[in-house]
Design goal:
The structure is a homodimer. The first copy, chain A, is 35% helix and 25% strand. The first copy, chain A, is built from ten helices and 13 strands. Chain A has helices spanning 4-17, 65-82, 102-118, 170-179, 187-197, 203-210, 225-236, 251-259, 264-270, 286-296; strands at residues 26-28, 35-38, 44-53, 85-96, 122-130, 136-145, 161-165, 215-220, 239-243, 277-281, 301-308, 313-318, 321-323. A seven-stranded mixed β-sheet of chain A has the order 8-10-7-11-9-12-13. A six-stranded mixed β-sheet of chain A has the order 1-2-3-6-4-5, covered by helices on one side. Chain A is globular and about 60 Å long. Chains A and B meet through helix 1, strand 3, strand 4, helix 3 and strand 5 of A and helix 1, strand 3, strand 4, helix 3 and strand 5 of B.
Chain lengths: 338, 338
Amino acid sequence: MDRASDIGEFGLIARLTSMLPRPANVIVGVGDDAAVLRLSSGQIVVATCDMFVEGVHFDLATCSASQVGWRAMTASLSDIAAMGCRPLFATISIGVPRDTLVGMIEQIYGGLTDAARAQAVAIVGGDTVRSPAAIVLDVAAFGEPVADRYLTRSGARDGDLIAVTGYPGQAAAGLEIILSSARFGERGDEALVRAHLEPQARVEHGLFLAQIDAVTTAIDLSDGVVQDLGHICEMSKLGGLIDVQKLPISSPLSDYCERNSKNPIDMCLSGGEDYEVLFTIRKDREEPFIAGWRERFDIPVTVIGYMTAEFDGVQFRDGDRIVLSHRAGYDHFRQRDS
Amino acid sequence: MDRASDIGEFGLIARLTSMLPRPANVIVGVGDDAAVLRLSSGQIVVATCDMFVEGVHFDLATCSASQVGWRAMTASLSDIAAMGCRPLFATISIGVPRDTLVGMIEQIYGGLTDAARAQAVAIVGGDTVRSPAAIVLDVAAFGEPVADRYLTRSGARDGDLIAVTGYPGQAAAGLEIILSSARFGERGDEALVRAHLEPQARVEHGLFLAQIDAVTTAIDLSDGVVQDLGHICEMSKLGGLIDVQKLPISSPLSDYCERNSKNPIDMCLSGGEDYEVLFTIRKDREEPFIAGWRERFDIPVTVIGYMTAEFDGVQFRDGDRIVLSHRAGYDHFRQRDS
């Protein structure tokens, strides 16, 4: 008989999802960053949830309690952001072992509240229960589109450009630094550690993307470029071709990789939990889009490839050479070292 | 330093709740069955979440996997029902140990799906993660009022009658039967066990209550009459007086208690997880209300007492004698025997 570890996180999600009916008021169900739902008035809302488990998603030895809360809230708000919607409300369920210090629970709550407040999101309810061993957090967030347009993972067209916000891979390097207990002597390293511990949900950026008709899909980089672009390819029934030379590598990441004999491209492609946004946009609108972006935002946006009908799945090219990724993102059930 | 077990579930909730800001679009925040929220269009929605943890809220030795799912979904839908609103959508997060059988996870999901389908609720998303030891479920549900009226725990007035749907206490007796491994030879016992394992969210009943102006408050009986009426008293700044002779005791509960030398009144007052609805209604509207109820519903509605400004808190009277409850509902952190 299959066990959860045999079929993996995505196998399990596929099995469970196939059991769900899809009524008419569910416009986008399971399988995107958030669900898109129609209320009886016709109003559209979006909803998502993310569970964070101690020992699986966080470790209080390497992450402060308030950072745990911040990251959990950011994961859910980022899902709403990637739909091009504005998050408005969140509910929080927290399970804690009986001997957990109240001060620590308050710090987790403080981090949740800070991350919510940073995006003008209200925490409106929750459940507080006992858990036998690990601390468990679940954040359900919901929001609404602005001007009735939202973004999904499907709808990219042949030739659309693929772009990313910010510098993917920094959070993965930050986690590596923390886990290796390296000193944070270098200023750049602090930026990488902060990218892991205090990621930012790209809410305003997502709303801007949704308001541009030429933007055809979006997803947040919670599992890394390889895996998340894979979702867009699958849902849009196209291939995605990335020119690895175009990947935005920040100087802190570049410095860190040079000092530690690591490949920044691997880190940029496979690192998760950056909560940057990857999206597709019609090729003929690249220039005005980039100009508009730069007027509004400090973080960069970088075109890294294009969608194609020539093949399925994701290809990464370095010049003429096809570089296949060997790491397909993070699978909670299959990972062996945690 | 305080630990979770020192201050208890309600102490912890109070500490955490005090940290939350309450923006203008949050009409009812933490502290009711569900939050009441205003979208930017003015549309009102309600949201709630409930976490179920293996070994705390359920035990797969005494409850089938599909019943675990059914109960978890019902707990959340019941919160929406007690607001007098229609649940529409739910998200589910599930954490499972790596060696959990996929078939068991599918059975839990089957129970969640069945309970959702029974109320025409769509499961629209979720998260599936690894948990180190226990299975953890979190169900976030949301919905909307019908005809713009919803019910809260505040707003009861001096002299309002207190009423309950169905037969509170049956689920507690059912759990007792399961835990004592008694044989279910008696037909009545089966009804009690079913009340625990397959409770029904009172959605249509809650919607009916919300449409009657004379109904002033409502709450679902998840923690038992003593504790849940206590919440209405606290939020409405009134006392509640219950005539224990008026409590609706079902014949299965009465038979079970007689055979086992137990007091059915204690069980009716302190038993939780029935998911019946307790509500208050203006005294002068009792007769037409009861007549209207009986036209629509098979389950009984029973007036058991009234709200009063003469004292604070909850009093239970048997004739002239004041009977105080000694058990104040279920506290996940303080309970010693689980």
